[in-house]
């Protein structure tokens, strides 16, 4: 059985992410693990560490019960409390040999996005290319994801991750919009080349009933995507972290931060 790991520090910033993950756990068809990493046990004895972990597990259990409105015995989740040199290292060690579908975190402002997706911590934590990170905005209204946006720049990995996206939501009637932004002031031959690439992507072997395709002509990537997200009432924005950011309009650091700041929706990043 695949696993979803929701990493928490038991603060208000992460409560929405817990509620969202728990409400949608059956859609993802995976077991839910609530993970808390304790970083203050490095200089403690084994006895002291064991006591601290027990106390922290009770704290996590109380947090889950209070946020989800039920006793732990009635909740469909597992709690794990582990030690780590840092939260990132603790998560990395915990999921290393796991059949992990995604890691879920709560996000407050742009800082978690910057640190988890683009900082040195991201390179340390995410070592497997099939390891997605789902970030949930703090004030997001918990609801079932019905409309998903996948942005493409025609990377080779797009076909692989689009198939994974379809598989992830295979048990639910979600629609996935595959969108590419073409700059209006690009040379005609470059525009034609991008249009041809888009046609080839559409012809790939997908579950076509879930996918819709759209080309958007705009010189402002952030404005174009933000407008599409709002007008189409998108519930999740899915992106692939681009290997060559100089050639990519999408998922450049500044682009993601601006989108995340302007449109408060869950962001799913494929690494």
Q: What would the keywords be for this entry?
A:
alpha/beta; 2 domains; ten-stranded mixed sheet; 39% helix; 23% strand; elongated
In terms of topology, how is this protein built?
Elements: E1 3-7, H1 15-23, H2 25-28, E2 31-38, H3 46-68, E3 78-83, H4 87-95, E4 100-107, H5 111-118, H6 120-125, E5 133-137, E6 147-151, H7 158-168, E7 175-182, H8 188-202, E8 211-217, H9 221-231, E9 236-240, H10 253-262, E10 267-270
Parallel strand pairs: 1-2, 1-4, 2-3, 4-5, 6-7, 6-9, 7-8, 9-10
Antiparallel strand pairs: 5-10
Helix pairs in contact: 1-3, 9-10
Task: Briefly characterize the structure.
With 271 residues, this protein is of the alpha/beta class. 39% of the residues lie in helices and 23% in strands.
* Strand residue content: 15-25%
How many structural domains?
A: 2
CATH overall fold name of the largest domain:
Rossmann fold
Query: How many separate helices?
Result: 10
The geometry reads as: elongated
Q: How much helical structure, as a percent, in the residues?
A: 25-40%
State the separation between the terminal residues, measured CA to CA: 22 Å
CATH architecture field of the largest domain:
3-Layer(aba) Sandwich
CATH class division of the largest domain: Alpha Beta
- Find the structural class using helix and strand composition: alpha/beta
Walk me through what this model shows.
The protein has 271 residues and is α/β, with parallel strands linked by helices. It is built from 10 helices and 10 strands. It has 2 domains: 3-137, 3-Layer(aba) Sandwich (Rossmann fold), CATH 3.40.50.620; 147-270, Rossmann fold (3-Layer(aba) Sandwich). It is 39% helix and 23% strand. Strands 3-2-1-4-5-10-9-6-7-8 form a 10-stranded mixed beta sheet, sandwiched between helices.
């Amino acid at each position: 059985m695949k696993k979803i790991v929701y990493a928490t520090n038991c603060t208000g910033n992460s409560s929405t992410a817990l509620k969202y993950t728990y409400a949608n756990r059956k859609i993802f068809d995976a077991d839910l693990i609530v993970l808390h990493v304790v970083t203050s046990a490095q200089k403690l004895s084994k006895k002291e560490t064991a006591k601290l972990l027990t106390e922290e597990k009770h704290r996590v259990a109380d947090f889950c019960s209070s946020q989800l409105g039920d006793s732990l015995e009635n909740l469909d989740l597992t709690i794990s409390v582990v030690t780590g040199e840092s939260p990132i290292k603790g998560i990395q060690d915990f999921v290393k040999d796991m059949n992990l579908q995604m890691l879920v975190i709560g996000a407050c402002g742009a800082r978690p996005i910057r640190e988890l997706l683009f900082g040195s911590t991201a390179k340390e934590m995410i070592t497997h290319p099939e390891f997605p990170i789902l970030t949930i905005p703090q004030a997001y209204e918990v609801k079932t994801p019905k409309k998903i946006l996948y942005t493409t720049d025609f990377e080779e990995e797009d076909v692989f991750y689009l198939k994974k996206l379809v598989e992830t939501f295979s048990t639910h009637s979600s629609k996935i919009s595959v969108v590419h932004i073409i700059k209006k002031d690009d040379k005609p031959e470059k525009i034609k080349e991008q249009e041809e690439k888009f046609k080839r992507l559409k012809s790939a072997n997908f579950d076509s009933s879930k996918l819709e395709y759209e080309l958007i002509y705009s010189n402002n990537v952030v404005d174009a995507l933000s407008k599409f997200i709002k007008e189409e009432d998108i519930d999740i924005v899915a992106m692939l972290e681009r290997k060559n950011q100089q050639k990519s309009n999408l998922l450049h650091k500044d682009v993601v931060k601006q989108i995340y700041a302007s449109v408060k929706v869950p962001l799913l990043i494929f690494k």
